[in-house]
Design goal:
Layout lengths: L3 E4 L2 E2 L5 H12 L4 E9 L4 E8 L1 H18 L15 E10 L3 H19 L3 E5 L10 H5 L2 H8 L21 E5 L4 E7 L4 H11 L4 E2 L17 E2 L6 E8 L4 E8 L7 H14 L4 E7 L4 H14 L8 H12 L9 H4 L1 H5 L12 H9 L7 H24 L8 H36 L6 H42 L5 H26 L5 H33 L1
Parallel strand pairs: 5-7, 6-7
Antiparallel strand pairs: 1-4, 1-5, 2-4, 2-5, 3-4, 8-12, 8-13, 9-10, 11-12
Amino acid sequence: MKQLIECVPNFSEGRDEQIINKIAESIRGVEGVKLLDIDPGKATNRTVITFVGEPEPVIEAAFRAIKTASELIDMRKHKGEHPRMGATDVCPLIPIRNITMEETVAYAKKLGERVGNELGIPGYYYEYAATSPQRKNLADIRAGEYEGLEKKIMQPEWKPDFGPQQFNAKSGATVIGARNFLVAYNINLNTTSTRRANAIAFDVREAGRVKTDNQGKPLLDEKGEPIRIPGTLKSVKAIGWYIEEYGIAQISMNLTDITVTSVHQAFDEVSEKARLRGVRVTGSELVGLIPLQCLLDAGKYFLKKQHRSVGVSEEELIKIAVKSLGLDELRPFDPKKKVIEYLLQDDNEKKLVDLSARSFCNETASESPAPGGGSVSAFVGSLGASLATMVANLSSHKKGWDDRWEYFSEWAEKGQQLKDELLYLVDEDTRSFNYIMDAFRLPNQSEEEKSIRKKAIQDATRYATEIPFRVMKTAYAILDILEAMAEHGMKSSISDVGVGALCVQTAMSGAFLNVKINAASLEDKEFANSIIEQGNELMDNMQYKIKKIMDLVDSKIK
């Protein structure tokens, strides 16, 4: 797999579209980089741009963007609500796939050296790239902002990590680093008071507030340091501000570790602290992108609060999350443009599962050998999982069964997972067939070419054997849900349980045919015999379970 890193530079310009577009074009001009998001803010006068790619193209794009910003943005004229110290204020690199944080730090420092040497812009490394503990936190580096930078940069303790130790009046300074994925998240309030917004921010942010005496003077500890009252949320940075563009105050938050404090936890905690201060949360907004799991977790969280089943589709979970968090209050929220996994998808890839039912049947019926029985088996299995999930969801909402909703919700959630896995395997089975065809098309003249081609064919065939076996195992797991629904689910849906069981039987039987026909072509007979033996065992167990389920179905229909 390719190494992937994300870059999220923040530029001190959010109003001039021409400047923003020129910076964006400098990024788009680098081959191998995908620009994911451009998020300008007029009140903050700041634009966050997100792009992703392999490390070398990404740092090239970042350098070009920083260079373009230094040419077009004059910090001597800049005003905005957000703290800042440079034309490119901060430029973090985030490891996304198949790359360590240590490797990402090396790329951050490579970028910093080039910015300092070629552009003459001074700067600092932060987070995992920090050269000292006091430079780890962005807020500490940026303290005093652009206006205080001329004096600060000459202090020995604030000598730049890269670039000259002299004030660059036009471009200011740039902070470059490597960090984990950060969610920039603003929560909207029904007030225009920055003071009240700040009070709520101090209530929740990890750093909290400085403890004061009755006269408002900071209280100090034995070392002379201010005593702080910590906030309620770990791994959260927050300030309050007024956004003239929206006519409201906001809590502006950075969730620096979403495994510690999630988006929905931050939303609910701010809502409660606001309520205690006579303020109400009206919604929220995302700045930049968000991982898919954040929205899925939020959707499940709010459904559980309603005592409703969480075993619903990905699309439904996102819809619940958006409405519950009020992410569409200020502007329309399009998950396809805000969820990083969706933006990383190949726009040119055509998936069988995206076809209509009619189109899927027509494609299967065409002269092409794929999709074939393997993909159809996986799809039939997904229908079995869907029926099992449907019965669980209906049962969880049945009147009079309110004390059992969690039991059925757990089964429905498992059914959704199995359904999604089988839908993935619909396309993966066809891909595995295409891998075999690609292997057969390899050059076959020299002895070396013949050897490479033979190995490629065998590797592809092995994979084409493993995929339908994976269909078998996934489909088999559905039977536990169907058995539970046959025993405890709504009686009025018992026929759906039976149809689901028959779908699983067809899916496993069809997939096993594909396992056997592909295994027959394998030279690794030990592997081939083993997978056939496991398949036979699964089929025997399946028949036993199917009979038990169908007996239950028949007894309840009579």
